[in-house]
Amino acid sequence: MTYRNPETLALHAGWRRDPASKAVAVPIYQTTSYQFDDAGQAARLFALQELGNIYTRIGNPTTDVLEQRIAALEGGAAALAVASGQAASAFAVQNLARVGDNVVASTDLYGGTWNLFANTLKDQGVEVRFVDPRDPENFRRATDDRTRAYYAESLPNPKLEVFPIAEVAAIGRPLGIPLIVDNTAAPLLIRPFDHGAAIVVHSLTKFIGGHGNSIGGIIVDGGNFPWEDHPARQPALHQPDPSYHGAKWVEAAKPLGPIAYVLKARTTLLRDLGAALSPFNAFLILQGVETLALRIREHSRNATLVADFLAQRGEVARVIHPGHHQGEAAARSAKYLTQGQGGLVGFELAGGREAGARFIDALKLFYHVANIGDARSLAIHPASTTHSQLTEAEQQATGVTPGYVRLSIGLEHADDILADLDQALKAAAA
Ligand code: PLP
Predict the structure, then answer these.
(1) 172 CB under 6 A from ligand 1?
(2) Per the count of CB atoms within 10 A, which of 195, 205, 266, 416 is most buried?
(3) 427 CA → ligand 1 middle, Å
(4) Distance from Cα 27 to the centre of ligand 1, integer Å
């Protein structure tokens, strides 16, 4: 039987029972390596003529279930789990872009991704061109012959303005340029492949893991991009790869399915750079996945209540939430966020930076932490923390103003969340 509903896939995709013990819960296969059946099988595994376990740096049965499950939930062909969301973002770009190439990215990115793109990838010879996503045509304008990918976040914080996924994907497709979407803030709420994206990345650390206990990341291959039609645009997938006996990835993947992109990422980047997810973290994240559909609904419901509550308060100058935008941004919320508006809420206190600091210090239920997507409610002041390594101009470009406070709304009872916000707002205004 095949299932389509996320509630069912989250519990069943990729696993029924352990073939040896018949265990129902996914076991933690805490092993580094795997006994080959015979010399012939070992050779076939290394030659990619057969897929199977070789060594946990490049694949593990616990992690494999997580990969299959997230691929199923996103509607993709296959996935590669890695040690963190940062590793997923880095690999997603490095898999296509080499020295002298470029990527066009939205300005609305997590601060860590911004740093990775503006500094580390630049040092490695890959230029990232940042463009304002409010006009999708900016992606076309920044494109040249060496552009290998477009990159964006589906629901970027702090602006919480949904990215025009279909519009930018449609610009890239005829040119052979895939859209990579970081869907960390909107799992299940937005399905980027349905809108034409080619690759999805997640920080599993956030809503998918959901309990604030494990760092992880994943890259999902939509299996929906015509790489084979674009040899000049995508040399990394077409030219013989000297690191794998001259494999041409588009050819090598043919017997295995539409997975050339993710196959290359696993067999070269993960093999060489080694950012493997531990099986234990894969297990913990799988526990989160099982209830993701339920949790993301509750996160969304509570966050919408919080946004509406803040909008009524005199201490608050502005509420930033997908349900509180005007114009084009409101239209994109309505188009893309049909299942809920996500767990994040931003706001600016009328009292500016000092009031922001007083507010954060007065919170009692909310944790003051550099994270989002925990079952617990979280708060942070981005200008002095997550975005502090950016210049003020860069902070402004990503939407971080000095008085901005970001909330990640948890699963506590709404009355208790609102009561904590009420007392902290009064303390901030005092
Ligand atoms: N992408 C987004 C949207 C994030 O918010 C984060 C972390 O905050 C990351 C990627 C990086 O993920 P990780 O912290 O798992 O490396």
Answers:
(1) no
(2) 205
(3) 31
(4) 27
